[in-house]
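Sharing in case it's useful to others searching the archive later.

Someone asked me privately for the predicted structure of DUF4216 domain-containing protein, so I'm posting the question and my answer publicly. Question first, with the sequence:
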Amino acid sequence: MLWNDREHKQSIRVKPRIRARDVDLIHTREFISWFEERIIQMRHEGPISEHILSLSRGPSTSVICYRGYIINGFRFHTREREKGKKTQNSGVVVTAEVSSFATARDKNPIPGHVSYYGVLTDVIELHYLGGNRVILFKCDWWDVINSRRGIKKDEYGFTCLNFERTICTDEPFVLASQAKQVFYVQNSNEENWHTVVEIQTRGVYDMNQKVSTNDPEPYQQLITLHNQRDVHELVKNDLINWDRNDIAGETIQTDVLLSRQENIVERDNEFIHDDDIDDV
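And my answer, the predicted structure tokens:
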């Protein structure tokens, strides 16, 4: 999709009387119709990926909504889902590439990155032809545009957000694959301001080691498409199927099972429940 994005922007730039600052605006407004027409043209010129073809035809009008989703090593819950719980899993951050201009007459945009912080309100699954699906996060986004009024740095260098200021936008959606998780801690001396705390992916540790470009690619990263779909585990109504279908079942005699149960020591009191964990 990235090459289509660049191709469309380039087609806008070559048009007469188009200001550099208007390219992104026109791209957002016209890309969908352009993409559909471009794929039809490419199909007449030669073979094209069925995956790209299905995306160009748009999603089904029916969608599935969820209250939680696990992706990128994070467990996300919607704001409604976590009401009454001690844990916090609705904080979202997405880093976007943006273009800025020094003056109104500047024709040379300066690329940069902006981190947008928000709260997850809905998880939406879109369905396309061929069984393809796309997961979107719908969020309420805090105001990170107005410095000092909506976002600031505290004396220790932490990012702080004003929860009374949100961004009014008609584009509240982001791809779930782009999202990372944060949680917010209310400031003790400023009620409306909350400090952003970044969350480390579960099971991933920073060993402070430099990676050589000559090293072979780690085996864990060689994931097939099938396994990627398994990793993106969908949490629907909090029910997860733990049955395995990749190995044959084992038959155990009743007397053997009973003898094993006699040797089991109950340890229910040692289990850490979700409601027993302080804000994580």
